[in-house]
């Protein structure tokens, strides 16, 4: 009896200690909130910040406002046109109906300077007392990438992709390009510079499918990638430089960032689309009002600030399933529509037309395969030599759709059951007729896309057996996913903070940041940091682009790679 009483007493003490600790944490949060409000009131008064768009750039801007400007979260308003935050960092679904990610955002430890710095201050929601940066890098170091089947031929032969396949003419053209000035490359395409042989090299197949370039993509964007990712050049055959998140980017990046902002009481408005901004007359660029699609307006006070997402690469995406293709796009991209509207109102606001006026050149289609059990993933592992999470891209170089797939470490979704597995793929040439399914990719159901891929792998005789384990295949057609790579003039992308702006900035993959490369998380985070630091006059360093292209050892390795 005495032992039982002692046990109850111990349990009571433990319970009391737990609640005391919880109460202390809550009191600390309340105290911190009061201090934040006092600082905000003293320095900013009733100043409000409106962030148009709920992608990683806008959410990062909110984090910088809180962390580095000591700005009150309750005066930060994120306005998103969709019913979910995250922008292109997405990942959603169920075990019963299948999972989907429109794409996977490749991270890179060496070149994502501001991304890692910011997320080192964002707490992980899965690893207590550690940051998101620590969580991602720890996971990546425990799950290194080393693709063993980077390129596969039509007869299922794994190529020796270590050889780049360059001729003397290819090397000479590449060397001249890296020495050229960006200003001389306005409106030039990659195929304007390189001869036909270049596009048949192992290098091109790997570089194209890793970063989603096309022959008609911007030459100076290609040049920036070669300079910025020169470390990746020598390991493009293994993709050893790819840094992977523990789960998809929505679960691993957006959710902890959102939790941080919610803790600081940031205001989120979903399903509301801003269609116009009003500017004050005069030479200065000052936003005075926001107009919504429903006709409502928000009049801005004198000191209020607006940071706008001026383009989204996953805008107007459509989604199919096992039995239905992803529908054709019938609506104008909402982010491009807003950019078009304001670009007419002043100089220095860029031009969206080179990016959002060429759907036939800027689209591709992804597909996410959800399986019951791991039989199909075991087949892939046996063929490629890579366990899930270690192989990065496997490209079927002779397929008419130019199909590539990635098998991530499992699970890839927070709510994914242990007996459910997924993998992701994409095809670049959506207008081409399949080699086995005689239809263009964009017209195919999820079942037809998977069947084409299975045939390309030489497994068509086992189709009935394989298909029995498929929960769903969800295709996603993205009309503007490559829009940031379109040929354009440097002036077509506006600066993050336009000249003479008093309260307005733009963040996205469609602003101009010298030396940096688009289609990356780093570009969005760097843009957010520039916007906040400039508009709020923050005297702190924005981490510069690391000049690996000026490192003698890296350059020597790049030269050796060109002769492999």
Task: Describe it.
- This protein has a seven-stranded mixed β-sheet with strand order 6-15-16-17-14-18-13, with helices on both faces.
- By secondary structure, it is of the alpha/beta class.
- The termini are far apart.
- A hairpin with a 3-residue loop joins strand 3 (92-94) and strand 4.
- 35% of the residues lie in helices and 15% in strands.
- The protein is globular and about 70 Å long.
Keywords:
alpha/beta, 7-stranded mixed sheet, 5-stranded parallel sheet, globular
Element layout with pairings:
Elements lengths: L1 H43 L4 E4 L3 H13 L7 E4 L12 E3 L3 E3 L6 E2 L4 H7 L12 H11 L8 E2 L15 H12 L10 H4 L8 H10 L7 H10 L1 H4 L8 E2 L5 H15 L3 E3 L4 E6 L7 E6 L4 E3 L5 E5 L8 E2 L14 H10 L9 H4 L2 H4 L1 E9 L2 H10 L8 E4 L6 E4 L13 E8 L18 H11 L6 H5 L2 E9 L25 E4 L13 H15 L16 H11 L2
Parallel strand pairs: 1-2, 1-12, 2-8, 6-15, 12-19
Antiparallel strand pairs: 3-4, 5-7, 9-10, 10-11, 13-18, 14-17, 14-18, 15-16, 16-17
Helix pairs in contact: 2-10, 2-17, 3-17
Summarize it.
By secondary structure, this protein is α/β, with parallel strands linked by helices.
Helicity, as a percent range: 25-40%
Work out the helix count: 18
Mean pLDDT: 94
**Alpha carbon gyration radius:** 25 Å
């Amino acid at each position: 009896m005495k032992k039982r009483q002692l046990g109850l007493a111990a349990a009571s003490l433990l319970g009391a200690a737990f609640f005391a600790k919880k109460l202390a944490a809550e009191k600390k949060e309340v105290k911190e909130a009061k201090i934040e409000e006092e600082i905000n009131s003293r320095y900013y008064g009733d100043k409000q910040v409106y962030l148009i768009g709920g992608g990683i750039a806008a959410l990062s801007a909110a984090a910088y406002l809180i962390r580095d400007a000591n700005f009150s979260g309750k005066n930060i308003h994120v306005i998103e046109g969709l019913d979910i935050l995250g922008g292109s960092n997405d990942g959603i679904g169920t075990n019963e109906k299948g999972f989907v990610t429109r794409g996977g955002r490749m991270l890179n430890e060496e070149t994502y300077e501001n991304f890692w710095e910011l997320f080192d201050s964002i707490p992980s929601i899965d690893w207590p007392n550690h940051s998101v940066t620590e969580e991602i890098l720890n996971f990546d170091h425990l799950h290194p990438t080393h693709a063993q089947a980077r390129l596969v031929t039509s007869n299922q032969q794994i190529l020796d992709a270590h050889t780049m396949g360059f001729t003397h003419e290819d090397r000479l053209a590449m060397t001249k390009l890296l020495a050229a000035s960006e200003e001389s490359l306005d409106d030039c395409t990659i195929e304007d510079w390189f001869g036909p042989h270049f596009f048949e090299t192992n290098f091109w197949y790997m570089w194209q499918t890793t970063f989603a370039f096309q022959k008609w993509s911007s030459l100076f964007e290609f040049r920036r990638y070669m300079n910025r990712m020169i470390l990746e050049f020598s390991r493009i055959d293994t993709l050893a430089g790819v840094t992977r998140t523990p789960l998809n980017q929505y679960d691993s990046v957006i959710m902890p960032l959102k939790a941080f902002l919610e803790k600081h009481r940031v205001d989120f408005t979903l399903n509301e689309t801003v269609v116009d901004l009003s500017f004050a007359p005069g030479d200065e660029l000052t936003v005075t009002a926001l107009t919504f699609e429903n006709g409502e307006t928000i009049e801005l006070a004198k000191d209020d600030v607006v940071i706008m997402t001026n383009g989204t690469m996953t805008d107007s995406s459509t989604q199919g399933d096992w039995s239905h293709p992803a529908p054709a796009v019938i609506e104008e991209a909402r982010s491009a529509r807003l950019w078009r509207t304001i670009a007419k109102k002043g100089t220095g606001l860029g031009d969206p037309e080179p990016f959002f006026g060429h759907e036939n050149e800027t689209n591709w289609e992804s597909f996410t395969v959800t399986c019951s059990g791991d039989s199909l993933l075991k087949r892939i592992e046996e063929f490629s030599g890579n366990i899930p999470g270690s192989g990065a891209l496997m490209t079927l170089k002779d397929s008419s759709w130019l199909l590539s797939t990635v098998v991530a470490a499992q699970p890839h979704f927070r709510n994914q059951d242990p007996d459910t597995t997924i993998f992701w793929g994409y095809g670049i040439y959506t207008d081409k007729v399949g080699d086995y399914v005689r239809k263009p990719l964009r017209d195919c159901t999820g079942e037809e896309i998977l069947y084409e891929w299975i045939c390309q792998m030489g497994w068509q005789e086992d189709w009935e057996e394989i298909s029995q384990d498929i929960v769903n295949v969800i295709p996603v057609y993205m009309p503007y996913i490559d829009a940031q790579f379109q040929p354009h003039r440097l002036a077509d992308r506006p600066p993050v903070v336009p000249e003479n702006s008093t309260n307005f900035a733009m963040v996205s993959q469609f602003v101009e940041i010298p030396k940096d490369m688009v289609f990356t998380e780093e570009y969005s985070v760097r843009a957010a940091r520039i916007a906040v630091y400039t508009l709020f006059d923050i005297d702190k360093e924005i981490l510069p682009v690391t000049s690996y292209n000026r490192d003698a050892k890296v350059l020597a390795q790049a030269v050796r790679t060109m002769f492999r």
